[in-house]
Amino acid sequence: MLPRKAPPQAKNGKWIMADGIMKKNAESSGWPAWIGFVASRYIRRKGGRSSASSVLPVLGIATGVLALTVIIAVINGFQLGFIETILEVSSYHIRIDRFPAGRTDVLERLEKLEGVLSASPFREVKGMLKRSVEGRTGRPELAVLRALPADFLSRDRGLAGKIEIERGEADIAGERTILLGTEAAVRAGIRVGDRVEFISIANILPGVEGEGGGTLFTVAGLFRTGFYEYDTGWAFVNIDAATKYADAATFTVGIKLSNRWKLDEALGRIKRLISEECLASGVGVGTPGGLQVSTWRDYNKAFFGALRTEKLMMFVLVGLIFVVVALNIFQGQRRIVLEKRDEIGILRSVGASELDMRCVFALNGVMIGLAGALGGMIPALLIATHIRQFFTLIEAAVNFVLGLAALAGGGRHEGAFSVFSPTVFYIKEIPSRIIPGEVVLIFLFGFLSASLAAWLASGKVSAIKPAEALRNEQ
């Protein structure tokens, strides 16, 4: 009689054949290889046909990831564009008011501080601008006159990057030259070379120049920032031209930082410097009549807070897609558990634990979540980085369909469809800005929603008893 062969052992060392039954090797540990095999089989039906319970969640997650990534990228483009324009053109990162005009030595030391990119002196006056040609004046328009040094573009690279000179030159070296916003010029019918009169609201002097005590300026150039408020109501002149309307002994210093988020560190260094200098000159910081230091968080808090809330609400609303998909996956996985009762009973009878079976369905959800998140993120990044071409393609497709509909109706399609029409939106092109941290967060939302739903649905496995499943099978 031939000796009985020893029972074969699985290659992975985790399962062994004993007495004709697969049993788990007590000495082995780790992830059983069969779990991935069974999970992949459960995603497909018999005959290789894709299961709707797997395909639809994948499409749902992909749609949610795609929509949320593209929408957030466009929102970031608009919001960051506005925020950066405000900080670079108007408010700066840190402002020091009532700075002594004679202390240029302190100004130079401010520019050399660690983390400071530039420190630009300026004066700001509110008043009215009107066209003045051949003794005739036009309709006055409210305006903010920002008086800067003649070398303001070379001194402040951030401001130079946000101002586009559309006509003329950025020349305010002369005390009677002015840069005007393009929209303000269009509304007042002003061209390069025309003369305009500025009248201060706070300090109208008796007739010195022009009518009503105003100051006459020659338009040297027209600029555009992309921010409607600045293009319609702002003008730049030489800093010495504003002494007629502002205190000549002081000005405001606008400071730009290399990293505006590291505000506290730079603010501490700036305050220490000006405190030392101001104490020597008898001027206190933060006292009535002394220097006043403020940051962009102080004077733009309400506006930036509104933008943050808008973005958060959009994130939540579009993110509801993941909730709907997660519920779909939860119900689908529970249905699969019930459909596979017999198979679960057989696997449990040969040694599979309850945790192993839960891992099968959880891995099923992980596969669905990974496929959906990757399937949505890849095209989303392509669209977000080529947003202009994407909307151009959409507009061309819509106009083509409208043209066919008009021809079928015997008419003619007039006017082109535009997603962001320049007549409605004050933009030249659609901005898009991708923030890596948000991309990772959106990917994890899509991936984890499917995985968590599948894991919760797999809890139904504990209600299946191997003996009952096998008895029903017989």
Plain-language structure description:
- With 474 residues, the protein is of the alpha+beta class.
- The chain has two domains: 31-72 and 306-473, no CATH class; 91-299, no CATH class.
- 50% of the residues lie in helices and 18% in strands.
- The chain has helices at residues 33-42, 52-91, 104-111, 152-155, 157-162, 182-188, 228-233, 263-281, 296-299, 301-339, 341-349, 354-385, 387-408, 436-457, 466-473, and strands at residues 15-18, 21-24, 94-100, 116-133, 136-137, 141-148, 164-168, 177-181, 195-200, 215-224, 234-238, 250-257, 292-295.
- α2 packs across α12, α2 (52-91) packs antiparallel against α14 and α12 (354-385) packs antiparallel against α14.
- The chain is elongated, with a radius of gyration of 35 Å.
- The relative contact order is 0.16.
- The model is unreliable at 1-30, 46-50, 205-212 and 279-288 (pLDDT under 50).
